[in-house]
Model the fold of this input.
Amino acid sequence: MMERSIEQLARTVKAAAAAMYVCPTARKNRLLRAIATRLRSAMPAVLAANAEDLEAARGAGLAGVLLDRLTLNEVRLTQMARGVRDVIGLPDPVGEITETRKRPNGLKITRVRVPLGAVGIIYEARPNVTVDAAVLCLKAGNAVLLRGGSEAIRTNTALVRVLRGALEEVGLPADAVGFVESTDREAVRQMLKQDRSLDVIIPRGSEQLIRFIQEQSSVPVIAHGEGNCHVYVDASADLAMAEEIVVNAKTQRPSVCNAAEKLLIHRAVAAKGLPRIIARLRSAGVEVRGDERTRAIVPDVIAAVGEDWEKEYLDLIMAVRVVDDVEAAITHINVHGSHHSDAIVTRTKRNADRFLRSVDSAAVYVNASTRFTDGYEFGLGAEIGISTQKLHARGPMGLVELTSTKFVVQGRGQIRR
Done:
């Protein structure tokens, strides 16, 4: 029964994608304005639904940063509505000509951006993804099938009601936003089989969820990668600047994928820099774990174990390692990192250039916090995820990354001989 239900749902989304494919920019922007307006008017209903989800989550033992991910309030809903309006102002990539050439036989060939089609989004906990993902997909001319986590089922249902109401208001098919109401994991399995209807699956969630989807899906997957992000403090670093960057990258919002999980520091400045940085981290509630060289400088640091260097904590925990030079830092990051976001703090241009050239990550920084790897901060508007893959999209996925291209060939009766 569930298989037929998910299959039928995917088909309705695919059918709605045909209408979105040819929807003009002005109408899509009217849709987004309607969504932003309805988010504000529906705030009491959404917050009531979220309160029920939070109560159930606490009863199930959810706490700390995981509970924060689930929480909506008036400020966050207002920011969500503002984010929708920001997307209105972004250029519509659909129809953009990315390449034009004229062949010797007179054929004119252009490459044009087109929507991906029917996009499946599978995500956990964060209800803001419901709106962010849908709005970006719709602005890029796609339809979307959403499957959120069981923790946010009531909140997501209320938000989807807002989205579908806005679609009907502007005369577009409500099924351009589909929603899998079942919280059974089997629903995910069936969604992953809908390769005849869904053009791509984009997962957002834990490493385990993403690996499961990549292994099980017959639909192409663009994975939102985990964020084992690093800050490397070089020998020439401004240590006051380094301290601020490390603390911000770790503590400004520790539950997100662009938060720094590891600190690497050059041996020449470790004795001077580490006590201050670790003290600041601890004052912010961070549990610090370190290698032997770190513990020789700050003896009461918890001993790091092998798995610490690979782990994405998503919590107020940071592992610290003293390294010999920039090459050692680069090697450590490329071996142990997740290729998400990594930063160097340095005043040496040669080392900065070496780091930028050699670190194989979706975003690399010089003298700035990794927390900037974000669609809004990069000027892309709300993001649908941050891809650490190398095919189709890498880094924050905005509107352009939700399109593909097709060739348009114009002739005057040419035939191939």
Summary: Residues 2-21 form the longest helix (20 residues).
